[in-house]
Amino acid sequence: MIEHINNRRFANRATLGKYADIEFDTYMELSGGKEDVLHVATRIHYFEKGEGKPIVLLHGALQNIYTWRNNIGDLASEHRVIAADLMGYGFSDCPDLTYSIEEYTLAMGPFLDVIGAEHCDMIAFGQACAYAADFACFNKERVDKIVMINPGPFTATSFPGAKGIVGSFGGTINKYMKAPFMQKALEDSYFDRTLINQEMVDEYCHNFDDPEHRQTMRLSIANFDDSSVITKLEMLEKPILLISSKDDTIANQDDVESYRGVLRNGFGLELRNCGYFAHEEKPEKVDAAILEFLEKK
Question: What single-letter DSSP state applies at residue 48?
Fold first, then answer.
């Protein structure tokens, strides 16, 4: 039987994406406080669509490129859009790292090289806003504009019952990421709960099927410290659009304001009747604002 292809379900399908083999050097801590160079060779899964100037989409904690399912089509009408699964997420590999902001930043340059994006604009959500900002601070010639959606860390208080996700022993993360917890987490994150369906619950639960990915996702949360990134942002003169949600009960508004307060060339959009996942819940408004911002001279 011939079936219609539902493009909104493409993003979490490994067979429809591409893979970039990247390499970079970082440091590993040895006994006695010494450090040694660690060479990392890993594989990044990504999906791309459209032609034109590249836009790189970076998802937040405990997500993958599925979160951009409602945005890629509109953005790709005028740009080459690349949505990447971060290291340790989705269908990307899980190298033996600490999953710090620095390591995500170091991986980004080689990734852009492999996909042929000499320079780009970046759109980031949640924790990934720090990755985009840190990369731009050290690679000013490669990033032109940045869009930040509800920036800040994922914390144990973000979702009721999520303390085990970031605890010292990450094994408990699996029991939290079953359908009942995910359903409740999405309900807490959305202003309009009628938008939540079983497909969304199932897709987000799939993130936690693999034990290696559970461990690396936990590390990326536990080892997240954006204090130095916010300090560096004060020196970054690039145009940055910060999108926030007035009715969001998940993001720590103090964290959002800490980013907003240091932007030297910042623009803002505050959405109403919208929760934490602004780009999922209000994709038309978010995409329109992004395209308007990117077209500004």
Answer: E
